[in-house]
From TrEMBL:
Organism: Roseovarius spongiae
GO terms for biological process, alphabetical: cytoplasmic translational termination
Family matches, as PANTHER family: MITOCHONDRIAL RIBOSOME RECYCLING FACTOR PSEUDO 1 (PTHR20982:SF3), RIBOSOME RECYCLING FACTOR (PTHR20982)
Entry protein name: Ribosome-recycling factor
A GO molecular-function annotation: ribosomal large subunit binding
Positions in coiled-coil regions: none
GO cellular component, one term: cytosol
Signal peptide interval: none
Name of one Pfam family that matches: RRF
Location(s), subcellular: Cytoplasm
Known function: Responsible for the release of ribosomes from messenger RNA at the termination of protein biosynthesis. May increase the efficiency of translation by recycling ribosomes from one round of translation to another.
Family: Belongs to the RRF family.
Main subcellular location of this protein, as a coarse class: cytoplasm
Domain Ribosome recycling factor: from-to ranges: 23-185
């Protein structure tokens, strides 16, 4: 290899940050007993012949700690929005009031809290796998460079750098999971 190998650790870090961002958005959609507009992000409505995020068919508000309201802009979509909410698996029973749909957030029971912590663990494991996949890509680049004549010292240096970055992001995933689980289990 004529010139020195330099691994694009910024790219690897950007991709690992993407896994963390995705994890945070998945965590935001988990219900914790408190009302939050973000809990409706995964809900899609069959509007105008295509699946549309709920926040694009109405205004989502949180007027009080245990209530989310959706003011549907098009009267013809109210029933479709209600149907999407019932089928979303959020465990919330929508109440109709004209074009406004009210979602009272019930207290979570112990069993439901435990289920939600398991879901959070699953989301965290997906994030860990994504981080490890980025690590594998970095290690593959290092192996290619080794085959092209990189020194063993350089190989060890870059492998250590990639591993430290991976360990750092796995630690962030674990911290985020602990925080979310504590939030879910808080009564």
């Amino acid at each position: 290899m004529s010139d020195e190998f330099i691994l694009d650790t910024d790219d690897l870090e950007r991709r690992m940050k993407g896994a963390m961002t995705n994890l945070r958005s998945e965590f935001a959609s988990l219900r914790t007993g408190r009302a939050s507009a973000s809990m409706l992000e995964p809900v899609m409505v069959d509007a105008y012949g295509q699946m549309t995020p709920i926040n694009q068919v109405g205004t989502v508000n949180v007027p009080e700690p245990r209530m989310v309201t959706i003011n549907v802009w098009d009267k013809s979509l109210v029933n479709k929005v209600e149907k999407a909410l019932r089928e979303s698996g959020l465990g919330i029973n929508p109440q109709m009031n004209g074009t406004i749909i009210m979602l009272p957030i019930p207290e979570l029971n112990e069993e439901r809290r435990r289920e939600l912590t398991k879901v959070a663990s699953t989301y965290a494991e997906h994030a860990r796998v994504a981080v490890r996949n980025v690590r594998r890509d970095g290690m593959d680049q290092i192996k290619k460079a080794k085959a092209e004549g990189m020194s063993e010292d350089d190989q060890k240096f870059w492998e250590t750098a990639v591993q430290e970055l991976t360990d750092d992001y796995i630690g962030h995933v674990d911290e985020a999971l602990e925080t979310k689980q504590a939030e879910i289990m808080q009564v």
